[in-house]
Amino acid sequence: MSGHLRAALQRKGGLYGLVPASVIAACDTKTSNLCKLLNTEVESKPFLALSLIMRAIPRLSGFVVTSKGQLSIQKQNPYPTEIIESSDIQQCSTESILVKAIQIPASLDETIQPVTLDISSSGYYLDVIAQKLGVTDASKVLLSRTIGKASSETRLYFAASESLVMELLSDHANVKDFHVKGLLNARASYFCGQEIYGDAIMASVGYTWRSKELFHEDVSLQSYYRMLISKIPNGNYKLSREAILTAELPSVFTTKANWRGSFPREILCTFCRQHQLSEPIFSPTSIPLKASCKLPRSQKKLKVTEAAELATEYTNGGSLNAGDGESVGLESSFRCEVKVFSKGQDLIIECSPKEIYKKQSDAIQSASLQVLSWLNAYFKELGMPLEKLNCSADALDIRLTSENFLKEFALCQSLHNVQQCGNQGSKLPESKSTNMEYTLSGQDVCLPNIEGSYSGVCPSSGSLLCISYSVSLVTEGGHTKELIESKDEFEFEIGNGTVVSTLEGVVTQMSVGQCAHFNMNLPPHEFILAAVDDPARIVSLLSSEICSLEYHVTLLRVTEPSEERMEQVDFGCGSGSLLDSLLDYPTSLEKMVGADLSQKSLSRAAKILHAKLSAKSDAGIKSAILYHGSITEFDPRLCGFDIGTCLEVIEHMEEEQACLFGDIALSYFRPKVLIVSTPNYEYNVILQRSSPTTQEEDPDEKSLSQACKFRNHDHKFEWTREQFNNWASKLAERHHYSVEFSGVGGSGDVEPGFASQIAVFKQESHLDDDDLPTQENSSQHCKVIWEWNCNDRSVPSSTSN
């Protein structure tokens, strides 16, 4: 306000010392907030604050007064000389400041035009704006709220009509009875979220508390169109990547490492601020993991290959799926709910995604992206029927409060409808659907011309690509060509819609080092005008010529998606069948360890694994070790692995030893995940085609019935589902693990259940490395039988017992 006061004291004649009431309403925070408390409609109708201020002035008699016939205020008594001298207002200069601005006509049939404000250093910039708007002085100029970031001085300025001025100056003015006459400026109103009438000027000029000098920045046609497309999520993302004609808001959130540009949460928060909504509320929750990965099923016996596939699911971040459709998970999982409210705290959007994620941050970003995707669809078709609007929301797990939503975005609808009904013959340099998304059909692109030799390095889904590209506007026949957008390096993840679909389709046909060029039809014009440095140069081409976009693309490099590396230990590995089978699958394992009591079996395992690992240079395994020793005795080298497996092992022990292994594994070895499988005794009726004897029969008859009771003569016991569930549940409870059940072979939802039952123990609280037993404070009872390292593939290292 001090800057406006200094400028008012430099005004000449009858305007000396007059400060427009609209300046106080818009720039004085305390007054503005008080007006909003007295009348909530002031938020969207800035002229209502003037009525409250003008009615309050007479009560301040002796301090300030109004100027007759003007919406201005001045101090009743002259300012003391020392105040005037200290304000540096007597310094005069003949220099002037030229500020570029934009004039936005109220009629959509008229084009937006650049204007220049010629402000003398000793003059008042609002008087200059008043002249541009065709009014006599600054008191009739109304100001919108600031547009864009909080520190911005960009505002919309528009003139109060003569009838509005007379009504505001009336002693009997009643805010509730105001009926503003004139044409609503839909484009200007859309920017600031306030009712703007008549022609408006968008300018970035004003006084800040940090400086006595007039702050000013140029507002060009390009910046206007950039602000326009930033009002939709897709445009906001394009701007964050500085790739307006190439980037697209991705359809899914994969990882933070591969994401480029503004994150979905940031874009959603910006969107709410731009549309004058409350900040979105994010409510992440931790839940038991329910994944969709299914186990292979066999109609008869459990095979070693099935066990390998089971372990492979886990080493690649998968999960188990029980017969009833319930899944068994490995990691902590999260889901996030997002709510969007109006400034008056009316619920507008509530998104409750069903998808779950390992990381809380991923759940927040994915839920935000889901809301943004729906908003993009809405802005693409602003006039969609209410029924379709709700159906599209339901498809994305969004509950829409239609009445509140349409109320908040009524201005968008109005702008869209007016444009669709406007003069189709006018040479409007912008698309008729101002916020229409840039989408292309197969008929909008010419077949690409790919040049260069095939290198063999090609992109695949999930790959991170780097390209160089240029986009030019070309006229029909190629007589005129204007470069619009280019980048020497542009990274994006392929397979999730991160770039315009046609470009993605072209690069999937290329290999590193190859170039391609192709033409596409034009997107909505505002995207083109936002991309070029000088839109005025392009307007005539868009208005008078048939044009297309010409893309030139070079594929520079392809980076395959990174994987989280893990370590696995197989308790009771035997001859290494599971570890061997895992090497037949793509894996994120970095270290493999096996432990067993049988040295003969371990010797066979060493030969098999060494041959395969030495031959597979791309296995991803860095090291492998086989230990000879009992899995019921603790060894610190088997502690703290990501995944532990014990498949079809415990039934070869006495029950007491099996229970001891469970306690040792979960209290000392403490893998993040432990998978235990054992035969389902009840399934033997299927395998033996007869009713098996019960485990409670006379012990004297045990030797006679053993062959038909258990599947293998070496089995010391076989548990029913109830016995296995009881053992696993109590074990998990004692050691602070969660447990979920599944199986392989047979069907979990058909009696007698799975052929082999599985328990997946998941660590509920991870220990720090310092809390785990170390080699210094624990004995090492296991002996290394074989050790392999990726840096030394020549000979196996073995130790005899």
TrEMBL record:
<keyword id="KW-0943">RNA-mediated gene silencing</keyword>
<keyword id="KW-0489">Methyltransferase</keyword>
<keyword id="KW-0808">Transferase</keyword>
<dbReference type="Pfam" id="PF21224">
    <property type="entry name" value="Hen1_LCD"/>
</dbReference>
<keyword id="KW-0460">Magnesium</keyword>
<dbReference type="Pfam" id="PF17842">
    <property type="entry name" value="dsRBD2"/>
</dbReference>
<comment type="similarity">
    <text>Belongs to the methyltransferase superfamily. HEN1 family.</text>
</comment>
<dbReference type="InterPro" id="IPR029063">
    <property type="entry name" value="SAM-dependent_MTases_sf"/>
</dbReference>
<protein>
    <recommendedName>
        <fullName>Small RNA 2'-O-methyltransferase</fullName>
        <ecNumber>2.1.1.386</ecNumber>
    </recommendedName>
</protein>
<dbReference type="InterPro" id="IPR040813">
    <property type="entry name" value="Hen1_Lam_C"/>
</dbReference>
<keyword id="KW-0949">S-adenosyl-L-methionine</keyword>
<dbReference type="InterPro" id="IPR040870">
    <property type="entry name" value="HEN1_dsRBD2"/>
</dbReference>
<dbReference type="InterPro" id="IPR026610">
    <property type="entry name" value="Hen1"/>
</dbReference>
<feature type="domain" description="HEN1 double-stranded RNA binding">
    <location>
        <begin position="233"/>
        <end position="379"/>
    </location>
</feature>
<dbReference type="Pfam" id="PF18441">
    <property type="entry name" value="Hen1_Lam_C"/>
</dbReference>
<feature type="domain" description="Small RNA 2'-O-methyltransferase Hen1 La-motif C-terminal">
    <location>
        <begin position="98"/>
        <end position="231"/>
    </location>
</feature>
<keyword id="KW-0694">RNA-binding</keyword>
<keyword id="KW-0479">Metal-binding</keyword>
